[in-house]
Amino acid sequence: MEIISIALILLLAVVVNSAVVRMTPFSLPFLLFHIALGVAIAFVADLRAELDPPMFFLLILPPMLFLDRWRIPKQGLFRHQGMIS
Predict the structure, then answer these.
(1) In sequence order, what are the residues at sequence separation of 6 or more whose Cβ sits closer than 8 angstroms to the Cβ of residue 20?
(2) What secondary structure letter does DSSP report for 26?
(3) Are 47 and 6 in contact (CB under 8 A)?
(4) What is the residue extent of each domain of the chain?
(5) What is the distance between the alpha carbons of residues 48 and 9, in angstroms, rounded to a whole number?
């Protein structure tokens, strides 16, 4: 249960950070703010979690696969559907 609460805290931090990035008057890369927030959280909070394989498959892999599925070229997918299936 601890890993889920840590994941939710970090997800909330990303959402808040995204809102802050959109409100800033200057333009910096989006990921730079996320890295800075991650470093700040690492120094302030004592969040420790061991990422075992089931948690990796639950928390990290599905969003990556969803993003890949969303960006796949549909024409190439339908052209090669026989080979894929």
Answers:
(1) 33
(2) S
(3) yes
(4) 1-49, 52-85
(5) 13
